[in-house]
Amino acid sequence: MDALLGQVHALVAWAFSLANDYDVPSLIEAGVFFLFAGLALLFACGVIFFRNVVHSALSLTATFICVACLYLSIGADFMGAVQILVYGGAVAVLIVMAIMLTRRDNMAHSNPSRGLFRHAAAAVLTGLFLSGMAAVAILSPFKSAPQSLGDAAPGLADLMLSHYVLPFEVAAVLLLIAMIGAIVLAKGAEER
Amino acid sequence: MMSFMELFQLATHVGLHHFLLFSAILFAVGLFGLLTKKGLIPLLMCVELMLNAVNINLVAFNHYMPVYDYSGQLMAIFSVAVAASEIAVGVALAFRIYRDHGTVNVDDLDEMKG
Amino acid sequence: MEFPLLSTILIAPLVAAFALCFVPKDDREMIRRVAASATIFMLCLTVYAFFNFDTLEGGVQFAEKIPWVADLGVCYSVGVDGISMPLLLLVGVIGISAVYTSWNTEKRPKEFFILLLLLIAGVTGTFIARDLFLFLLSYELFVIPVFIMVLVWGSTKRLPKEFVAMKFIVFLLMGSAFMLVGVVLLYVNAYPAGERTFDFDALRLAGEMGRFSDSFQISTFPLLLLGFGSLLSMFPFHSWSPDGHAAAPTAVSMIHAGILKKLGAYGLIRVGVLLLPVGAKYWSPLIVTTAVMGVLYAAYIVMAQKDLKYIIGYSSVSHMGYILLGIMTLNATSVSGAVANMVAHGMMTALFFSQIGYIYERTHLRSIPELRGLAHYMPHLTIGFMLAGMTSLGLPGLIEFLPEFTIFVGTFGVYPVQALIAIFVIVFTALYVLRLLATLLFGPKDEKYAEIPDEQGASMVPLIVLGVFIVGFGLFPSLLMNVIDCGIEPLAPVFEQIANAPTMMGGVR
Amino acid sequence: MDFWAISIEIAITVLMLLTLLVDLLLPKDSDRRAVAFITVIGLVSVFVFSLGQYHLSPSETFYMGLFIADNYSLFFKQLFILGMIFVVLFSLEYAHKFIRYRGEFYSILLSSLLGMCVMASANDFITLFVGLELMTISFYILVGFRMDKAASGEAAVKYLLVGSGSTAVMLYGISLIYGATGSLDFLTICRNIHLFYAAGLAGVVLIMAGFFFKLSAIPFHMWAPDVYQGAPTPVTALLAMSSKAAGLAVFMRVLYVAFPILGTYWMTLLAAASALSMIGGNLMAMKQKDVKRMLAYSSIAQAGYMMAAMASADYAGIKAVMFYATLYLFANVGAFAVLSVVEEERGGTTHAHITGLSEASPMLAAVMTISLVSMAGVPPTAGFAGKIYIFTAAVDYGYVWLAFVGFVMSMMSIYYYLLVVRAMYRDLEPQEEDSARPIVPNFSVRVTALLSAAATLVVGVWPDFLARATNFASQTFMR
Amino acid sequence: MFDFALYHAWLIPLLPALAFLVIGLGTRQDKKKSAIIGITAIGASFLLSLGVVGAVLTKRLVMAAPFVMKTVWAHIGGMDLGMGVLIDSLTAMMLVVVTTVALMVNIYSVGYMEHDPGMGRFFAFLSLFAASMLGLVISLNFLQMYIFWEGVGLCSYLLIGFYYYKISAREAAKKAFITTRIGDFGMLLGILLIQITFGTMDFIELKTLVPQYIWISGTSFLTVIGLLLFIGPIGKSGQFPLHVWLPDAMEGPTPVSALIHAATMVVAGVYLIGRAYFIFAELPIVMNVIAWLGGFTAFFAATIAVTQRPFKRILAYSTISQLGYMMLALGVGSLTASMFHLMTHAFFKALMFLCAGAVIEAMHEEADIFKMGGLRHRMPVTFKCMTIGVAAIAGLPPFAGFFSKDAILAAAAEVSFPLYLLASVTAFMTAFYMSRLLFVAFFGEVRDDCPAQETNAFMRWPLVVLAVLSVISGAWGHFAGFGDWVFYGVHEEEAINWAIAGSSIVLSLVAMWLAYQIYVEKRWSSFQIARRLGVLYDLSYHAYYIDEIYAFIRELAVDKLGRLALWIDTHVVDGVVHGLGRLAKGVGAVLALPQNGDVQRYVAIFYTGVVALVAYSLFYAVKILSVTGGAF
């Protein structure tokens, strides 16, 4: 009982203190973060739990966009743009196309899941992984010190074309090969 | 024990840990999907979720930690490229599977075992 | 530079094997002629080496040394001392006998002789190696030839030959796994990185400098023992051996019982006892006891066996027990006896198997109740069997008597009870050998063997070659013993050291 | 910027584009041997050219040390190139029979090679990641390249799914390392004390998990058997030798260059994974009936051996790994060359398919035997010397138990290798007479098979040359 | 001349050995040449032996001062193993006995074996036997003796099994070898102990070392050695528990029985003890054992011999009995008597066996004496010779046996009355059964179907020579002073003790009379007596069922145990091996169970591994944090 009273006290005191030092920008920041993060997680869950795979795909796109918004919120504007373009655009289209090409019948139950046991096991495993990662995040005494490195796009361009030009070129080859490979595989599938 | 207030304070001061936890959860959701979905395409979507989650990590570190260039974001960009390639190949393979098996459910893929 | 005698001996079968690759596979005559000439050449050289071995000078002779693998500290270092010289001779003798025993191989002769020559080369390399790496390299060379030979040319009796081939190899290699751990431990502990070497003498030197602590020796020796002991068919790690004999083609049985097992014993002396004397001493009561148990146990099993190859297989387990006994008693007398017995038993067993092979090849029988009264039609075969049998039961005047006697002399003073049992087994040996000979050779005539020719020409070669050595060394043992003696004599300090080391029973025996 | 440092990569890229181009130019119905020959000739010239890159002076780097062309990477690159040459050579007939898009096949082979080469030289996580993914994605495609076989597609899907999972984990690890140290550059990371953060520690293990996946170490091995079995045989060969070697090369660089201060931390893990892989891989291989699948399990064990040497974390260990990777390459080339011929002639790679091979083609049977024995580590093949190097390194560091497990398991492994030999050499049942029908492999297969067998034997009997080469490469690496 | 013989004494065994080689490798197929070579070699040895005797007599090489030549045979592990020649009076006596009998048997065999296709082989083996036996006789040390000891064993084996197509012969040969092997085992132990204790096996060196040893350490350990050494003679000389092979050994050709199993080889045991008497004589316990065992064997074998029917079997048991006598003599300390009896026995037993051979051949391989009868008419020479033999063994003066047996009885009486009594009873029984043999086979009516004819000259003359020797050797030995030469310790002048001699003569005569009454006059029916005796007769007739007991023991302790061991080996030892193999495979199969093709399971296992690694890293991180307190 006492503990409860204590909590109530604290709540009241907090309300007062809130009035005292009302840090608007920080709260807005928090609001934005929680809004988009929450939405992203919600949509992510939608990817998994929608019965209709098209809905899942749309949900995935929504997740991507929410994440892009988060990027924007911490100043990674270029990254946000890439996210929207590549994920929200290209990948989503690819996926929807794939769905259309591999499924021509009723979409109602087009996103089946494994059995109950598998869900339970997956939940345990996922939970363990999550708690591990959370523990890692919490146990690490990061000394965060946000700073501005200037505009992201020029900074990235600078890196990409000087420091990391080689990976950049290799990534080009990678995309080329992925394209060729995808064509070959898909073509092979067609020519039955 | 932490009081509500401190908790709230902690929650409202959005920082690195928020993003780390968020990305961990997103990753976990993707992982959960990867383990439970049947269709190949939903599985690919889940993979994308996981890769995306990691990107959030990278971008967040790049923003919050005392670093002097954008290499974290760059890494994320490369990861996007890789993810895109992966999904392209994955989709092509989905066609293969669909052709061979008439379905894209991976639980039918057990020709090889033991 | 001296003529590289030992290398020539080593290379001869390899060259022949290589040459055989280019002989058309239907030209049987050519194939066996090539194989035979290689082994004859080998025999001549080994005999030359044996009789030119300077027993007064002793030490390592005909040595050659070429740096080989620099960073492991490996040299191509060959040479023979008084211990390995007789065994090299044994290889030469059994090599030629094996080739001639297989003279009439009809099934895929080309591959057969290639593998046989490889096998011979491998065992040769082991005995002449003065470097542990080279030793190991040749030591396990037998694996593939033996496996394939059993598989293709073997015979199925109690167990399918495929199964036996597998058991044979896996068993031995499992043993050698332990041995390899031991060897690596030795190698690493002997010298600090950069100075390491596989050279036997250098390793011994390291031992003398005290690089191998007592506890290290005690823990490492069992590893080596497991490896070498299982090749030596030490009880209770012998079960690969009789089955292996039974399934293998004759030539392989000869080499297997005649040489391979000796390889185990040789390794045990060369690596186990000489490098880890204190460890050997510590375990010796246990090993001696199991050795004697093996002697008795295998002799008992022979009593119940009917299949000729199983009989000889188990009897060789029994005889190898004597050798192990001699080695692990760890004094100069017993070890010399063991080394001599290695030669003796090798020749004896090879002779036995070659005779069995002869009869099996022609009748496809080798079970005692099915074969009888062979003496009526095959006097030469009878002589072969009698000679082998009498050698086996330790008849004086034949090669095996004096080595056994020496082992007994060496052992009796140290382990009287064990020695007593071991000596008593000579009665059993007589019993089973005589039973075998009696049923196989003597008794009423059986017309079904009338058509089978007696040994003639090529098939007499094993009998003659082995017989000459069995009788010759039996009547003039000093030919053999002097060589062995000059190999054992320099080891006196080792035995001295051992004499004062504690055993697992505590104290000094 | 020094293009000399990336000349090999440039050459391979050019070659890759050339093959694409030639493929386009060739008439539609021509067989693509020309492409294969171009590939081989090109790779041989690259190989010869690369010999000239060994150096005693400090290593060349391409831009700010992010890409280093040291002797170590050079050695591995040559290894990959060599493996690729062999694979292309022995798969000529195989590709002709089973691969529909041969021109693209060779291009993608080359792109995977490019990925490996980039990995071997990578000195920061971005380059590493991109190279790794280039290789991996190429392999996803290659594994699915047999359009006529459903198993091939299935294998590709499995590889892709598990591989993506592993990519995600590895990326996660990289992100944590980045978070802890603020850098992706190995040379910067290695000096950063913040690696001891939980994030750093977790990052290391996550990265290791990614590499364990590549090396198919237990318990990250589950994909390997299915993928090896389903993939086209030449691709399986590459997976077993090159992909694994590339993983090793970069794994060692990451551990030794980026995380040396965590040595005691990851060594334990390596030793444990090594022991698990050696035991599990060998035991599971025992009951396999399909040779390719058996080789998959055996490759798990082989990875275990190599990790045992890595666990000792000094130049002797690196050298042992390099030595072993080389001889493993030779052994694999031999084995898979034979298997590809068998699959081509008899339509499969199970024990039933290789039965009677010793009569159908003694040469192939002998090569197979030698290769398998080398994998088991029995003299006089190279495997024996390799094992001695590996376990000497392990024992030297104090991992006696690891050496013990390794030797015992490697000798146990002879069992399943000999099962194959047994199938090839055993007497044929009357109804199997068909299996004795002669197989005459074509010239390139013969050359490849004999070369690999000869190399296995020569290295086994006279390991000095290879030992010197690996010493040279590894010592400059540790410098 | 004598010097030549002495210094070339090593030729004595070598010549027959060479003959063996020549016959074995060359002339085996040619009967005549083989015979000539064999006889020539043994004849030369005989001459040389005579020369040696001459040398011994002229140079007075008594046992205390022998002539020695030696060479190193092998040097091994710190032991010097010598080979050499030791010539003294004992050796000389043995040489002459052996060569004489061997020569006679060789000549006899020419006749006996003339129709046998294996005659060449036979002569080869005979030569080898002679070589081994002579080598044994001139042995300088225990090892050499053991070597030739085994050599004679081998020859015995070969010759017993000469008719290898006969299963009985084959089995008898085997039995002989194995039984003597058991004895050899003990002897080998003894020799080993001597080598270990004294560091030498040389008789001459031991002769000086043993007394010193006894002086220092007493006799207890030496007693063990002595007993072990004695096991060898028990086997070889057919003493009680190991006598079973000797009767069976009669499966061999009769000349072989004469040479080996009567005259020479079986006395090797006696000879060994005589040679090593300087050890045995110092060990009273061992001496007692020898004496009593000898006495018992003598009596025991005699009781069996009384009821046997086959000709050679009776002789065989009589041999055992006589060997027992010799042992008894040794045991009571009279080397002289023993050796004397050895010599005389060699002659008359060889004689009787050769007679037996003649009879059996004449009877077309019929051995049962009760199927013979009246042979004295058909084979007069043989009959006369046989009679001389029987008289000799019965101890009737002036035949050879009288002198030697008397000496033994006298020696026994001097030491122990019970032994004397035993010996006397045995003497009585000996006379009885030998006369029984003589009377049944040679007296009575000639049967209608009797094919017997007198034998040919080759077989006849050796009989005559041996008969002469059987007559004169005793008296000659006695009066020419055998005891002056062959003795141990201090030589005592011995005269015939007429009390003992007289009583033994009386006993013998009574026994012969009894036999005559039963078997010739048929005053008492032998069957009635047998029935009366009942169990005793059965026991005796079946040799106390010792063979059966041994067979039972062998079945139990060897064959059954062997089968048990085999079972253990295939099911337990091998079972463990196979089980381990299966276990490994099984574990592999279990480990591969998760590999069911389900890719999501693969992912799950992958992530399980990841989680485990993360857990490890967290554990490590917490440890670091706790160490550093979170400060970096």
Task: Provide an overview of this structure.
- The complex is a heteropentamer of chains A (192), B (114), C (509), D (479) and E (632).
- Helices cover 79% and strands 0% of the residues of chain A.
- With 192 residues, chain A is mainly alpha-helical.
- Chain A folds into two domains: 1-122, Up-down Bundle (Four Helix Bundle (Hemerythrin (Met), subunit A)); 149-192.
- The termini of chain B are far apart.
- Chain B has four helices and no strands.
- In chain B, 72% of the residues are buried.
- In chain B, helix 2 packs antiparallel against helix 3 and helix 3 packs antiparallel against helix 4.
- Chain C has a two-stranded antiparallel ribbon.
- Chain C has one domain.
- Chain C contains 20 helices and two strands.
- Chain C is globular.
- Chain E is mainly alpha-helical.
- Chain E has a two-stranded antiparallel ribbon.
- Chains in contact: A-B, A-D, A-E, B-D, B-E, C-D, C-E, D-E.
- At the A-B interface, helix 1, helix 2, helix 3, helix 4 and helix 5 of A face helix 1, helix 2, helix 3 and helix 4 of B.
How large is the radius of gyration of chain C? 22 Å
In total, the number of domains of chain C comes to 1
* Mean pLDDT metric of chain A: 84
- Biggest sheet statistics of chain A: none
| Tally of helical segments of chain C | 20
Tally of strands of chain A: 0
Order of helices and strands of chain A: HHHHHHH
Query: Architecture of the largest domain in chain A, according to CATH?
Result: Up-down Bundle
Q: What is the helical fraction of chain C, as a range of percent?
A: over 70%
Number of strands of chain C: 2
- Which oligomeric form is depicted? heteropentamer
Name of the top-level CATH class of the largest domain in chain A: Mainly Alpha
Overall geometry of chain A comes to extended
Provide a brief overview of the structure.
The complex is a heteropentamer of chains A (192), B (114), C (509), D (479) and E (632). Chain D has 479 residues and is mostly helical. Chain D is built from 21 helices and 2 strands.
Summary keywords:
heteropentamer, A: 192 residues, Four Helix Bundle (Hemerythrin (Met), subunit A), 7 helices, extended, E: 632 residues, mainly alpha, 27 helices, 2 strands, 75% helix, elongated
What are the SSEs and their pairings?
The complex is a heteropentamer of chains A (192), B (114), C (509), D (479) and E (632).
Chain A: H1 2-20, H2 24-49, H3 53-73, H4 77-102, H5 116-139, H6 152-161, H7 165-190
Helix pairs in contact in A: 2-3, 3-4
Chain C: H1 5-20, H2 28-52, E1 61-69, E2 74-80, H3 84-101, H4 109-128, H5 132-139, H6 143-153, H7 161-190, H8 200-208, H9 214-231, H10 240-247, H11 250-275, H12 277-304, H13 308-329, H14 332-363, H15 379-392, H16 401-412, H17 416-441, H18 461-475, H19 477-488, H20 492-499
Antiparallel strand pairs in C: 1-2
Chain E: H1 2-7, H2 11-25, H3 31-59, E1 67-76, E2 79-87, H4 89-112, H5 119-137, H6 142-160, H7 167-198, H8 203-217, H9 220-236, H10 245-248, H11 254-263, H12 268-275, H13 277-280, H14 284-305, H15 311-331, H16 335-362, H17 375-378, H18 380-394, H19 400-415, H20 417-442, H21 457-480, H22 482-485, H23 498-520, H24 526-533, H25 535-541, H26 546-591, H27 599-628
Antiparallel strand pairs in E: 1-2
Helix pairs in contact in E: 2-3, 2-5, 3-4, 3-5, 4-5, 4-11, 4-16, 4-21, 5-6, 6-7, 7-9, 9-12, 9-14, 11-15, 11-16, 14-15, 14-20, 15-16, 15-19, 15-20, 16-18, 16-19, 16-21, 18-20, 18-21, 19-20, 19-21, 19-23, 20-23, 24-25
